[in-house]
Amino acid sequence: MTVTVPAPISTETETDTHRRTFEHITPNWFAAVMGTGIVATAAATLPVQFPALHIFAVTVWVCAAAALFVIGTAFALHWIGHRDRAVEYARHPVMVQFYGAPPMALLTVGAGAGLLGADVLGPSASTALFAILWITGTLAGLFTSVAVPYRMITAADHRDVAALPAWLMPVVPPMVSASTGALLLPHLPEGQWRLALLCACYAMFGLSLIIGMITLTLIYGRLVHGGLPPVDAAPTVWITLGLIGQSITAANLLGTDASMVFTGSQASIAVGLHVFGIGYGLIMGGFGVLMFALAAALSVYAARRKMEFSLTWWSFTFPIGTCVTGATALGSALDFGLVHALAVVLYAALLAAWITVATRTVRGVLRGNLLHPN
What we know:
Mean pLDDT: 91
Largest sheet: none
Shape: globular
Radius of gyration: 21 Å
């Protein structure tokens, strides 16, 4: 009987394997940071608070910050070591949309620093980190909101172009800046600085809302006329809720904080903005209920057709998280317990989705099928 001894693995092969680890670190990996970060920030703002929840929120925020560092480093190595592949992804009509994810990851972790970071870093350092991440994420988000549509408009080939839920990714970051900017407002000096930030946040709210609603109309029309995207991309339908929930959050947080800017003879402006936030939240909330039910039904439809796990499953997390923060902010503005109860129920759904997706992601990374797709 002949025994065959397997040949030793060469150092070159091992090196190539390690290098290939970063070949497919695409921008949609940052959705994992967004989804994890929103679990922490949503917990920090829930109307029901207790010590264990706070400890959990801080722990999850630390995980999100660590994930931001690891994925950010891997993404940089992806561009350095696999530039041709990175350029190929950046030119892909769908993948380029997910360049909106890195700015939102920065903003989400930054908001967590402002809400929870003091327990780990201290008040001064956490506020400084919040400000740095907010400024960086805002500038990057404003860039993607212009650069990605420009790339789509000037692309050489427009054949078979169909509106996809991913189209919202590059235009939502300014809305995230608007809502998280409201959390930064109390840390600025009174007077012109606060006024400037408040005005900037409302301007970004308008930028993202108008272009987002136009895009959402295209997406809805495409779904009705063209049907669902491929089954594995079906979770991206939930991205539509990101704009809805984040805009309700922004409108109400900014409306509440307006009283810090407009005082005395200008107090009526603050009252008007507060009322606007409530009215907007109620109207957009009704639309959100429709889209939530539709997204859930379409997800069940796709699951019955053997929808396999992929990074698109992170679309189940961040959009639901924005619905939690939106319900919390609206409930506080209205002082309405029923809306606060809705926020708690939505948070339970968010937690279940996050545990499921995070577990499968870790398993996929350990097995290598997420890092080395076929």
